[in-house]
């Protein structure tokens, strides 16, 4: 029985080491993917912010053209809005 016990303990130890190694690799992969996801989220937030700014600019420009506002005054108003959006 001793030989069988030693063999089984050896197999269990080998399987445990293999599983720990795989788990460590998976943890590293998850960390890398998490960092990539954070960078993508930041880029999307920046794109969304610029999209909102462009939408507001288009709306203001449409209103300015529709009510015949002087371009200088519209530009001042747009600059003020952009500064407040930061």
- What's the total number of strands? 0
Q: Helix share of residues?
A: over 70%
Q: Which overall shape is indicated by the principal axes computed on the Cα atoms?
A: rod-shaped
Task: Provide the structure class.
Answer: mainly alpha
* SSE succession: HH
Q: Quick check: average pLDDT?
A: 87
- Beta-strand residue fraction: under 5%
Record the SSE blueprint:
Elements: H1 2-67, H2 71-85
Helix pairs in contact: 1-2
Structural account:
The chain has 86 residues and is mainly alpha-helical. The chain has one domain. It has 2 helices and no strands. It has helices spanning 2-67, 71-85.
Give a quick rundown of the structure.
The protein has helices spanning 2-67, 71-85. The chain is an all-alpha fold and 86 residues long. It is rod-shaped.
Key terms:
mainly alpha, 0% strand, 86 residues, rod-shaped
């Amino acid at each position: 029985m001793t030989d069988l016990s030693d063999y089984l303990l050896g197999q269990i130890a080998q399987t445990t080491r293999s599983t720990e190694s795989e788990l460590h690799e998976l943890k590293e992969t998850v960390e890398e993917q998490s960092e990539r996801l954070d960078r993508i989220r930041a880029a999307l937030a920046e794109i969304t912010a610029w999209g909102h700014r462009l939408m507001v600019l288009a709306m203001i420009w449409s209103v300015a053209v529709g009510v015949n506002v002087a371009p200088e005054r519209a530009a001042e108003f747009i600059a003020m809005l952009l500064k407040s959006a930061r």
